[in-house]
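Per reviewer request, we include the raw input and output of the structure prediction for the construct analysed in the revised manuscript.
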Amino acid sequence: MSFESLGLVAELVRAVSEQGYSEPTPIQLQAIPLILKGHDIMGGAQTGTGKTAGFTLPLLQRLSTQIQSQKQRPVRALILTPTRELAAQVSESIEVYGKYLSLKSTVIFGGVNINPQIAALRNGVDILVATPGRLLDHVEQKNIDLSKVDILVLDEADRMLDMGFLHAVRKILSLLPKKRQNLLFSATFSNDIKKLASSLLHEPIMVEIARCNNTSEQVEQLIHPVDREKKQKLLSYLINSQNWKQVLVFTRTKHGANRLTKQLENDGISAVAIHGNKSQGARTQALSRFKEGDVHVLVATDIAARGLDIDQLPHVVNFELPNVPEDYVHRIGRTGRAGHKGEAVSLVCCDEHKLLRDIELLIRYELPKVIISGYEPDPSISPQPIQKRPNVRNGNKKPSSHKITNRYSNGNTPRKPSKQSNHKGSAHNLHKGVK
């Protein structure tokens, strides 16, 4: 089927065609017609399947039929995302696909100067992409009115709960009109997500392409058992011996990401770290250098597991397994996208055996294990406890908007994405489907 057959207007089909796409992905085939008809959607799909365009294209069309003429046009579509990177990616997609429509959009997130965001909001926008903390900052400063929102999108809803945004999301929902279209998208569906959906969505239609918490068949998964003290040397060995040129490596902590980056540099491997303590400018620069091939290794915490859009990324390495098994799915979902093959390698020490079992139970698959000669684990080493992060998903620790603001405050205004970065990062990263 073509995008025209889904009922999209000529302006949107033209914008999509200019990016080189002619065939919708499965999630787009199902979601676009339903959203155009005004249904609430609960969407589930593996990352990299074209979910972003699955909701942005029909959203743009629905809003374009009721263009507001006044300068101070109200926000009519609100898209909430858990991270700055994902917010920027969604915003770029809206700009690319909506280029022939008379709609205005902007993106707001923390870690950058708030004044340009205030100016953009005062000029009026139809579509607002936002992270919860910074959005509440603007609400408290009375920079924005959410009483006219017609369409609400919660993107990566499970990650939003994992990051402790449930309280903020509920506060934002209380500011919206009760009569609206709601679209909830998530790569995994926990009980908490289902509970949120039941209170948010009205007679929703489930759109699910793959089994919840499933991993892509395009990703070859492998476990390398190794002692914790030998992990870094094994990682350097794998990168050098297999001539890996582009590797995304995940650690559990920010400190661990910084330490590993220095160790890799000491081994002669170009590496850069990206995590929540980095300024937005530093994160943007690090990702740009990695995409352009200036550095071979990007070391990241789980904040980068969503929203990182890297064209044909060949290798993902779990230097440390995540505490939350669902995060394993999101981490390895950075590779094997849009029909391309990918490899996900996990370095697992004796401390992480329970984490590995939880992951295998989640994905219903026993991961193959290969011991590398020279890095055999010592059976006499006793496991050490792994410090786990506080359980914020279930609301036991509800951050106030002030705490959320502090988490994402301070920083400089980011560079405006170039046409080249938009080309690689938003609309040109899929082979036959739109991201």
